[in-house]
Structures are given as structure tokens and as C-alpha cells.
Specification:
The chain is built from 5 helices and no strands. The protein has one domain. The protein is mostly helical. Helix 2 runs antiparallel to helix 3.
Length: 84
């Protein structure tokens, strides 16, 4: 059994939650991503994936979308809908 292979139920799924917490803890980054998502939802999603790589929390766009969809947050869900 190999850890960290990016399976849907493996560490990468937890990375999406950890990355969300990391981004949420930075007010300026959160606001910048929200503004970007209003103008360019796909670009914001790509930026989130890049941030994850930069902070050693690799995620895929699908994992980010799945995590956002699991949140009880109407604004985040609207941005997710716009990025599809």
C-alpha cells in the first residue's frame, strides 16, 4: 500500500480541506481569489491548484470542486457553479 498516491479517498482529498483552511486563514488572499472568481472562475480554480502545489498541499481542480461542493457556503457554491 502506497501513501500519497492521490486516490480520491486518500491524502489528496484531505489536502483540499487543508488548502481551504490555509487560504481561509489569509484574508487578503481569500479576497483576491474571490474577486478573481467573479471575473475568471476557471482561472481562480487554476490559481488555487497552483497555491496548493506551492504550499505542499497538491490538489486537482476536481478535488477543489468536490471540497467546495461539500461546504455549507452559498457564495462558494455559486463560484463553483460559475466555473463549470
Amino acid at each position: 500500500m502506497t501513501a500519497g498516491t492521490g486516490n480520491h479517498d486518500g491524502p489528496a482529498t484531505g489536502n483540499a480541506a487543508a488548502l481551504y483552511a490555509h487560504i481561509s486563514g489569509d484574508h487578503d488572499l481569500t479576497q483576491a481569489l474571490f474577486r478573481q472568481a467573479l471575473q475568471d472562475p476557471s482561472g481562480a480554480l487554476e490559481r488555487i491548484v497552483a497555491i496548493g502545489s506551492d504550499v505542499n498541499l497538491p490538489v486537482t481542480a476536481a478535488e477543489v470542486k468536490a471540497h467546495i461542493a461539500s461546504l455549507d457556503d452559498g457564495a462558494s457554491k455559486q463560484q463553483l457553479k460559475n466555473s463549470q
